[in-house]
Every structure is written in structure tokens, then in C-alpha cells.
What does this fold into?
Amino acid sequence: MLALAAGILAVALVTMFLPPPAVASGFPATLTLERAFPLNQRVELDELKARDRVRHGRFLQSSVGVVDFPVEGTYDPYRVGLYFTRVLLGSPPKEFYVQIDTGSDVLWVGCGSCNGCPQSSGLHIPLNFFDPGSSSTASLISCSDQRCSLGVQSSDAGCSNQGNQCIYTFQYGDGSGTSGYYVSDLLNFDAIVGSTVTNSSASIVFGCSISQTGDLTKSDRAVDGIFGFGQQDMSVISQLSSQGITPKVFSHCLKGDGGGGGILVLGEIVEEDIVYSPLVPSQPHYNLNLQSISVNGKALAIDPEVFATSTNRGTIVDSGTTLAYLAEEAYDPFVGAITQAVSQSVRPLLSKGTQCYLITSSVNGIFPAVSLNFAGGVSMNLKPEDYLLQQNSIGDAAVWCIGFQKIQGQGITILGDLVLKDKIFVYDLAGQRIGWANYDCSMSVNVSTRSSTGKSEFVNAGQLSESGSPRTVFYNKLIPGSIVALLVHLSVLYTSLFS
It folds into this structure.
């Protein structure tokens, strides 16, 4: 192989004996093999590996598989306040830390000469900048590219007046923003089939940020970019599924306690307790039809129209939001019901306008069960830790506050990481539904697959041993709609930043 990398490619004549019916004359026949590179041209090893990754990517396109990402970070706003993963982009591959965001569509990372991009991170992770000129497989996306046209339709892309360049400008709900241009390059990963690990890749379009504003400029929680998991055509999940590499479904399980972390797969996590509610159709975000809220089994007196989906209204599932938010008309009845339920056991107090409680024992034995009731007759059951945040302590007592925040005058409810943690969430884009179940996200999960023999099986996903080998567990159990057996890991070593 080293000789090959140095450009020592032999000119070969291959004698090929063909069956008599296929050849009328000139038997035996000879075929000339041409050089891939000129004799005097030195071929770098990285270039050859890049060519191989492209070829391996084509192998994968004949099978639908599962991509498994490592997850780091935590929901706790006093520690990190976000969950993030790692991606490998370009040739040679370069590592980037990106926030997991189901509330936006596009994967983007900071690029060289970026204005406002942080240079260091309080998360103690190295920050990198993508340079298209340093990747042998990178190319710019022009306005005439069909992929840019798809982005324009979903408002994820625009066209520069100079240079025919496909560009973007995003403004996020916290007031931060980014702008840049689109590139096409390889997303690199390891394909794990059975006990065999194969380096592979897929060509995707992602953003190259040249400007950042607002909180994105701050170093305390800085990451390299944002990984949008929305359902529009520019999202990575849509791009990979359209290439036949992954199914059009992804799942996550965000660990709430301890050091955080969790599991993120482009594929369907299978768990018997998962319940599903249909997505509201024709919406840019993951909107669910929230119908009512119950405290201790009793539905609150909230007009259902408060939760109805319309322009700039409705209930959105968003992993890029740290806390959770209720429409103004729902917030006051919700907080009032919680306070009334614990009035005999705790001391209520206000802290900067937020309802808090002074507690000397466990919240689980005092605070009521809450359920969010959705279309399809299913509920999302919340423990006290799913709607409360511990703020500080006063003597021997802990101060716990309502984690839900009030959104005034907008009619929007947002379910952020405070609610999403410690649950499996399945975003079934093909079936236009979202499923969930309470789960210990420090455990591995089962992803439905189909083996080459046709048997339906499970692949045990989400964790890697320190040697880099996947731990797989197989069960002879039929799963409808199961997928071809393939488990892909973007990282050889699964570790938690905060463990």
C-alpha cells in the first residue's frame, strides 16, 4: 500500500480467457489497464484514502442503515445548558463539536476568517474552523445547484448577488445569528456490520459560517456550530435518507442526571413503552397537537385553542432549547395548580419573578405528577425534575423553581431539554409522527434492523467499548418495518466530557 501511495503503479497487461461463444476471433484477448495517476506524479496517502471513502460510500448506498452519534453535554443551565455531538467533515477528516438542534434544519460549522466566531470554549473542548481549500473533496454550492434551489424553497438558502454563491442567514430565537455560504463535502464515519468496521463517508451539503452574532460569539458555552435535525431538504437526515444511506427517522435519549450525555441515532429506537402522536402537517418545525395539561390526574381549565397550531402558534419539540416554555394563557393555571398541590408541604417564594419553593426533602415525595396530553390519546408523563430546576440552597433547605417559562403574547409552547431529557424520543419523518417513552439514557438502546438472512433483529446501539469495537446484541424477534442490518458510529471512542 505504501508503494501505491508513492505512485508506483505498474502498467499491466491482463490475459483474459473468455468463453468460446463470446469471442469470434482474437483468442486469447488482452486488456490494458491505464494508470490512475501519471508515472511521475506523487500521490499522497490522504488523497487515496479520500478516493476510497467515496467508493465505500457508494457501497453503503445499496443498504439502508443506522448512524450512531456520541452525545455530550447536559440540560442543566447552571453547568452547560446544551447537548452536543461530534462530526468528521472533509478530506482529511476534521472533527467538529456541534449542538444538537431539532428546531433548525442545517448543519453548519465556523470557517476561516469568521467574524465573531469564538476562539476558545468554556466547555474545555477544542474549537476548529473548516477550510474548504484544505479539503480535497470540498466544493462550493452555486445558485444553480438543485440543492440550493431546494434550500431556497424552505427558506434555508439564498443566492448571493456576487459570485453566484449559495448562501444563508439564520436568526435564532435567543437573538443570536449566523451567516455564511454552502459547501459540499464528505461526512465521514465508520460503518459497523457485524464485527467488521469499515471506514465510509457520504457527500452532504452544510454551511460554512463567516459571521456570528449574539450568544454564538460567547466563549462560555461555545461549540463549532449547530447540527440542525429539522425535516426540510437541507437537513442531514433528509440528505442521507434521500441517498438511501439511512432511514428517514432519527432518535435521541438525553441523559439528565450525573454528567449528562446520551444517545443519538439516525434510525428508530425500539422500546415497548413508546407511544406516538402525529405531527401537525405542513409545519416548518416539529409541531405536536397538545390538547391539555393535567396535574395529579386533573385537567387544568385551559382553553384548548391556546395550544392550537397556526402561524407562529402551537407546541414545538426543540432540543436546541434548554428549558421549556408555556403560552401565557397556560402558564398561570399550571403554576397555580403546582403551588396549590404542595401548599401544605413547602414554603413558596418568588425569585426574580419566578415561582420557587423552599424544600427540606426530596421533590419526588412532595410535588405532583404532571402529564401533557396529546392527539392520539397519548400523554407525556413528567416527573418533578422535568418541570422544576434546583436553583440554590438556603441553610439546610433547597430552592427549587418552576423550570417552565412564560411566553407572553405569542401562543407558543416549546418543549426543550428540561422536558426531553431522560426519555427516548423518536422522530419518524416517514410516518409523520413523534414517539416517546421514559428511559434511563445511561443504558444502551435497541435499534430495529434486518439481517442479510431476512431475520428481524436488534442492534444494541449507543455505546462503544474502549477498544473501539461495537457491542452488539441480537434477538430473534420480529419488528415490522425493520431495516437492513448496519450500525454506523461517527466516533471510535464513546466518552462523556463530564464523566
